[in-house]
């Protein structure tokens, strides 16, 4: 635990990372046992129970060491780890392998949002940082994508056999994920999941690094990540729907955020806006001429 403390100073980041990783180890252990020739179901079950016994023992030890009495962060990190692990397991099933890839992507994204916030901007860290409760629209979009996948998988299975197309979807997913996290790390305390209405004393306008190429790299990353998830699922309807809905969402979000940034930084942001594009296709943000 002391080594973990030295590597990851933030207490909640350490705890949730343990919860996330132990889920992965638990299910991976189950997979290994499953691959043993002539493996018995009772042996598989006992192995899984032993791994989870280790998990809860570790949870108790960490909570005792860290003096934790709130498990709200724990169970969300556990859920993300379980989603990732189930994705690994499902990816071994040929007809559902691409849905396994999707689960890996979702588990990674939601936990990495929390972990990146814990490392770079701990003052804003909360259970909302997982983005699991982002919005009702986000949940509806996810359910619709699952519905399309399983309807097409059941009625027209060949559509879900285009693994090359699914693999191509991993490119915008990885690219978007990396771009978003780079933006979060680079912005540090100036990054927030919520558009700020009041300027903090330590809030500064970040214009270097990836922000010198595009004004909203975190939005750009999420935009292409979301579309990429549907390419991974080979969901033709949701690829189009996600592109349209994501564009509308980020168009409005950019407009609102830039209105705030212009109020915070005035001429400094005006010059920055004129010099650097938003990065999002056909989205220009808040018109400067309307300010005031």
Protein traits:
transferase, Protein-S-isoprenylcysteine O-methyltransferase, 68% helix, 2 domains, single chain, Four Helix Bundle (Hemerythrin (Met), subunit A), membrane, mainly alpha, flat, 292 residues
Our count of domains comes out at 2
- Classified by CATH, the class of the largest domain is Mainly Alpha
Q: Segments where pLDDT lies below 50 for 5+ residues?
A: none
The CATH architecture of the largest domain comes to Up-down Bundle
Say what the CATH topology of the largest domain is. Answer: Four Helix Bundle (Hemerythrin (Met), subunit A)
Strand content: under 5%
The total beta strand count reads: 0
List strands and helices in order, with pairings.
Layout: H1 2-7, H2 11-35, H3 41-66, H4 72-90, H5 97-120, H6 136-155, H7 163-187, H8 217-232, H9 236-265, H10 267-275
Enzyme class: transferase
GO molecular function, one term: protein C-terminal S-isoprenylcysteine carboxyl O-methyltransferase activity
Pfam families: ICMT
Q: What does this entry look like structurally?
A:
It is found in: Endoplasmic reticulum membrane; Membrane. Pfam families: ICMT. The protein contains 10 helices and no strands. The protein starts with a helix and ends in a 17-residue tail after the last helix. It has 2 domains: 1-133, no CATH class; 134-283, Four Helix Bundle (Hemerythrin (Met), subunit A) (Up-down Bundle), CATH 1.20.120.1630. Helix 4 (72-90) packs antiparallel against helix 5, helix 8 runs antiparallel to helix 9 (236-265) and helix 9 (236-265) packs antiparallel against helix 10 (267-275). The protein has 292 residues and is mainly α. The radius of gyration is 21 Å and the shape is flat. The model has no long low-confidence stretch (mean pLDDT 85). It is 68% helix and 0% strand.
